[in-house]
Amino acid sequence: MPEIVNLTESAKKYLKSVGDPNVLLSVNGGGCSGFQYVWKVTDKEATVGNVHIDPIAEMYVLGCTIDYVTELGGSFLKVSNPNATASCGCGESFAV
Questions:
Q1: pTM of the predicted model, to two decimals?
Q2: When comparing pLDDT for 84 and 54, which is higher?
């Protein structure tokens, strides 16, 4: 069975370093485009790697790739979402 989301090696390494023991990925209404990704530390059982995906968020993030990106302006988790019909410039919010 395929994973709900795909984690790159750099994302796995970063998420292991910040999770205590795991990281929660959820989706809330808001942001420039309608929905936004929310990251928190959690002790809930992991869904993928050490990430617990909020069951309500699964339909919004199904098939996403999560990468940890380091750029001149900083580093961040980048979610490439094939379900998104629009997103904001910073990549923190999206529409479906």
A1: 0.85
A2: 54
